[in-house]
Each structure stands twice: as C-alpha cells, then as structure tokens.
Design brief:
Strands 2-1-3-4-5-6-7 form a 7-stranded mixed sheet, sandwiched between helices. The termini are far apart. The protein has 485 residues and is α/β, with parallel strands linked by helices. The chain folds into 2 domains: 5-153, 3-Layer(aba) Sandwich (Rossmann fold); 180-484, pyruvate-formate lyase- activating enzyme. It has helices spanning 24-35, 51-61, 75-88, 99-104, 106-111, 124-132, 200-203, 212-224, 241-253, 274-283, 297-302, 309-321, 339-351, 369-376, 384-390, 407-432, 438-447, 450-457, 460-473, 476-484; strands spanning 5-10, 39-44, 65-69, 93-97, 117-119, 143-147, 150-153, 182-185, 188-189, 208-209, 229-232, 260-267, 285-293, 325-332, 356-361. α8 packs parallel to α9. The chain is built from 20 helices and 15 strands.
C-alpha cells in the first residue's frame, strides 16, 4: 500500500453560500476509498473549519496523503492552504484534482510546489490506484506527478462507461448535521454538446448514465434515513427522455412519497415536453432550471446551443403552467452579442413567472472555443493567470471586450442586469403572496432583501421553515400565468 490514510479536504470557497450541502465529488472519492478498505477522514473547511481545525485533524488522524478537489476560481487561496499543510508537516504527500487540475494539467504543479500529484477528470479509480501502489506512477492513467524535477502526465483515463459500478456517496464521516437536509446526486456524467463558452467537454467529454434502478437505490437509501429533499446536479438529466420516465417509475414503485426533487443545474429545453414534465411533477419534482444562455435564435446559433427559442419558450411555458418553480440561466457577453440581444434575455425573463434569473458574465476558460476566439482576436483585457483566480459571473470588471460590447458597456450591463435579477426575484415572491394584496407586496420587498437572504441561507432552521411554506404556495404559479397571458 503506497498510502493507507487519506484526508480529503474541501477547501473554503469564496462564493455566496458555501457549505449548504455535503460536497458530492468528495463524497464519491470517500466512498471509493471506503470500498477498497483504505482508511480516510473528511474536513470540509466551508463549515467554519479554519487552520486550527486543519492542524488538529492532521495531528489526530495522521494521514500520509492529503486529497483536495479544486475549482479554478480562488485557486491561489487553495494553493496557500496546501502550502500551509506542507509547512506544518513535510512528510505528508498531497494530491489535487477537480476542474482546475483537469483544465490546466501540469501547470498546476508548476504553480504550486506543495502538490505532489494531480488527477485529471474522474478521480475515483486514479486515487484508489495511487493509494494501493500496485501500479507504478507512470502506469496510473489520469495521473500527473513529479519525476526527477520533471512534471509527467500519464495517458488519459477514459470516462467510466458503466456508472453503476461507481459507488455513490453515503457521506460517512461527513458532518451531515451541519448541512441542510437535502442530498445532491449525479444520475449522469458529461455532456455531448459543444457550447463555445463551456468547459464541460474538457472536464467530462462523454455522456454516460446510471440506470434508473441504481438511482432508485440511492434515493431509497436516504429516504430510509429520513431525507425527503434531493437535488439532481446533472448537466443533462433529461437528455435521454425514456430514462427520466424510468427514474420516475422507480420512485413510484418504491413508494418514495413526499419527495421534493430539484434540478438546479439546468435541463435541456429541447429534451422535455409537457407529458414528461407532468410525470416528473407526479413523483415530486418541483424546481427546474433551464440553461437558456441567449435571448434570440441568432445568439443561440453563435454559442452553438443546439436549441431554438421555440424549444425554450415551450418548455418554460409548460413548466410554469404545471406549477414548477423556475430558474433561468443566461450567459452575457459572447462574440457579436449586442445590447439589444441582452435586452431580449430580459424580455424573456419578464414574460414568464419565473422565480429567479441568473445573468452570468461569461468567463473564458482555457480549452473552450470562446477562449481561443478571444486570444486570436486579441480581445483580452485581463490575462488568464489573473482573471481565473478571481473572475465571478457577477463581477463588473470585464475580462475581455468585443466591438459590439466594449468594456464600458459591459460594466453598465452588469449593473443593469443585477437590478433586473432583483426585480424578477421580488416579483416572484409577490406572486406567492398575491392573495394578501398590499401585504404580499411588502413581503416581496422584505424577503427579496439580499441581507435577509444571506441570513436565510446561513440558518438551517429558517431556510427549512421558509421552504416548507414556499412549496405550499408554488402551485399558484399556473393560475397566475394563465390569467396574465
């Protein structure tokens, strides 16, 4: 055994609402280690666990390997945490994985001398093989390692073809009582589409699915432990429509009643129809997000979305009529986009009674078509080493500009769209309390306040109380939409 005691760390993330639910990727890694009888422990630093907790865990558990999954935003902070571990105990080896390592590969080890190993793409088998020691480092696919001062990348690891063989997370050794009582899960991995702004084809290029029975096993496991709220975080949950029906049938067959199911990461509008939405509603689906990304057919073609506005409007209208809570995602600032194109997104958002809209400034990641286009046309205003560390979907400082949207216009649009997002969210709350007249409008003003929202997300008690009430009011959406249109 090369490594027998592994400490998996979820570093503190500089995002609005960290630590809401247990990190699913780390859950898969932990379960894979447990399945192979490799001792492990967990530290989620988003639960108010700082360096003192980290030092205490290192002293108490005595790991010989630290594993950390990293996103790209705020990567310098993650490097700092790993360097602190190296200073505290030079004996421990460090392996890093996640989107940041998959996109930048050996550059991550060049930038952070504390990292001994990197893992590209799916990490379950790579981590297990690294720990077990039966293969030489050069034989472990998907591994990046140091060899006599050189950084070596091994052969690419193919994505797992049969996801049912990968054990899903039981979250043992996680502090489950410190998270909201909602379980996130993946029922598929990957995406076959090639939107110009999206790095998904770099991170997970092949689309593979779990069987409906395997998904049912996971839901039933948590159901028996008292959980009723689940969030499906797939990039393409509904790509195979018959599988969606099969999952719904499994939920019904197992008598998993009283579920609240969300798809918060966005589903394909062109792969859903009214019959499917009705079936999903029957078994407990209440919340859907649509990755709309553009406001008209011209821009959908530019970003290579593979959908039409007719597809998108039909899906949103049907979902609203059936009483779903709806969130829309848009990507702002793509090549050739104009202020008028952006306004089309706002018009679409106002047309339907959606609960929330995210107008996200596009972030060009290396490996995407958008990144290559900006570099070719010399439109960067900030260099990747700088903006990748601190770029935010809502940041006002532009990363690049185009003739149609110069820097000043991008700054103006960011402020404008932030106000539109707040307005749409406020009106959704007013609709929920519409029957109370002026009191409903007052509720919209109060409950959409960003400071109250911060308090709400920071308290498991208040979030649970508000959501129980909100889900009772949600079906009124269908009546409101038909009346207003």
């Amino acid at each position: 055994m090369r490594f027998s005691r592994v400490l998996l760390i979820n570093p503190e993330h500089n995002v609005e609402w960290p630590g809401l639910t247990p990190p699913i990727g780390m859950g898969y890694l932990a379960e894979s280690l447990r399945n192979e009888d490799i001792d492990f422990d967990i530290l989620d630093m988003n639960l108010g666990r700082g360096l003192k907790h980290l030092h205490r865990k290192l002293d108490g558990f005595q790991p010989d390997l630290i594993g950390m999954t990293m996103i790209t935003r705020d990567y310098r902070r993650f490097y700092g945490t790993l360097q602190e571990i190296r200073r505290y105990n030079r004996r421990i080896k460090i392996v890093a994985g996640g989107p940041h390592v998959t996109i930048l590969r050996e550059k991550v080890l060049e930038q952070c001398c504390a990292i001994d190993y990197g893992v590209a793409r799916d990490g379950e088998r790579t981590l297990v093989e690294l720990c077990q020691g039966g293969l030489g480092e050069e034989e472990i696919k998907g591994l990046i390692y140091r060899n006599n001062g050189r950084i070596v990348c091994t052969a690419e690891r193919e994505p797992a073809a049969d996801l049912d063989k990968i054990p899903w997370p039981r979250f043992e050794k996680f502090e489950l009582n410190r998270y909201f009582r909602e379980i996130s899960l993946y029922t598929s991995r990957g995406c076959p589409y090639r939107c110009i702004f999206c790095a998904r084809h770099v991170l997970s290029p092949k689309y593979n699915v779990r069987s409906a029975g395997n998904v049912g096993d996971e839901l039933e496991y948590w159901y028996q432990k008292g959980y009723r709220k689940f969030n499906i975080e797939d990039d393409n949950f509904n790509l195979i429509q018959q599988r969606v029906y099969a999952v719904c049938d499994e939920i019904e067959r197992r008598r998993l009643r009283g579920l609240t199911l969300r798809c918060s990461n966005g589903i394909r509008a062109d792969r859903v129809d009214r019959a499917q939405l009705s079936r999903m509603r029957e078994v407990g689906f209440t919340y859907l997000a649509f990755g709309v990304d553009a406001g008209n057919d011209r821009m959908l073609k530019v970003v290579k979305k593979g959908e039409t506005m007719a597809d998108i409007e039909s899906a949103i209208a049907n979902a609203c009529q059936l009483g779903y809570t709806i969130k829309l995602f848009f990507i702002i600032g793509n090549p050739s986009e104009t202020p008028e194109d952006v306004e089309d997104m706002v018009k679409l958002s106002r047309k339907y009674p959606v609960q929330e809209v995210h107008f996200n400034n596009v972030v060009p990641y290396p490996g995407t078509e958008l990144y290559d286009w900006i570099k070719e046309h010399n439109h960067f205003l900030r260099q990747p080493d700088e903006y990748l560390n601190n770029a935010s979907f809502w940041e006002k400082r532009p990363i690049f500009e185009t003739p149609e949207l110069p820097a000043a216009e991008r700054i103006r649009l960011t402020g404008y769209l932030h106000k539109m997002r707040e307005e749409i969210h406020r009106k959704s709350i007013e609709r929920m309390f519409r029957r109370y007249g002026l009191l409903g409008k007052l509720a919209g003003r109060i409950l959409s306040n960003k400071w109250l929202e911060r308090f709400y997300y920071g308290s498991t008690f208040w979030r649970g109380l508000v959501e129980r009430f909100r889900y009772r009011l949600t079906p009124a959406n269908s009546v409101i939409w038909r009346h207003e249109n």
